[in-house]
Design goal:
By secondary structure, the chain is of the alpha+beta class. The protein has one domain: Pnp Oxidase, Chain A (Roll), CATH 2.30.110.10. Helices cover 21% and strands 46% of the residues. The chain contains three helices and eight strands. Strands 1, 2, 3, 4, 5, 6, 7 and 8 form an eight-stranded antiparallel beta sheet that branches. The chain is globular and about 55 Å long. The structure holds flavin-adenine dinucleotide. Flavin-adenine dinucleotide binds next to strand 3, strand 5 and helix 2.
């Protein structure tokens, strides 16, 4: 269920700023539901943003806990953060951390066909390095791709306080 940010003044709605966060962060924390327990995995990602619709592309081994979970329950929650800078002040309450972040709900699907995996890895490497790479069939054999269609997301920024 979509729920607005409580500190509305910190919400980021400008698409260029949101894309900047996605370009800088490069690590996503993917929350999953393993039975009745949460399971969170940090992973590198590539992304596409088309008309405000965010899709993440991940890659990993062909076996493991996250794949087992997604096969049973593909609903995920993603968290991405960057620009993390702690600040301090004379009192405990004036300490804090600046950040930019994105959070959202999504649905994960496993990509197991060769062409789909090549496409996912192309997006991933573009986001991670800014460069275009090509992949042979052999290079993607031992890899599983994960596509996360993010249905609802919000972005937030805590700037450095003015003192
Ligand atoms: C910054 C960062 C980037 C990463 N990028 C990727 C990526 O792009 N692709 C990728 O596949 N993996 C990546 N990893 C590793 C990832 O977090 C998982 O370890 C890996 O994907 C295996 O997940 P799994 O659920 O299959 O693990 P499994 O090995 O099946 O999990 C079994 C158990 O091992 C433990 N475990 C698993 N992963 C970790 C971990 N990272 N730290 C501590 N304990 C753990 C947990 O207790 C888990 O229940 C990254 C990790 C970090 C920190």
């Amino acid at each position: 269920m979509k729920r607005g940010i409580t500190r509305r003044e910190r919400e980021v709605t400008d698409m260029d700023e949101i894309i900047g966060i996605l370009d800088r962060a490069r690590i996503v924390h993917v929350g999953m539901i393993d039975g009745n327990m949460p399971y969170v995995v940090p992973m590198n990602y590539g992304y596409t943003m088309e008309d405000g619709k965010l899709t993440l592309y991940l890659h990993g081994a062909t076996a493991g806990r996250k794949l087992d979970i997604i096969r049973v329950n593909p609903n995920v929650f993603i968290e991405i953060d960057t620009d993390v800078v702690p600040f301090d002040g004379p009192s405990a309450c004036q300490h804090g951390t600046c950040y930019s972040s994105i959070m959202g709900e999504g649905v994960a699907e496993l990509i197991e066909d060769i062409e789909g995996k090549k496409q996912a890895l192309t997006y991933l490497m573009k986001t991670q390095t800014g460069k275009d790479f090509e992949f042979s069939d052999k290079m993607v054999t031992g890899v599983t791709g994960i596509k996360i269609t993010v249905s609802d997301y919000t972005a937030k920024k805590r700037p450095m306080p003015k003192r």
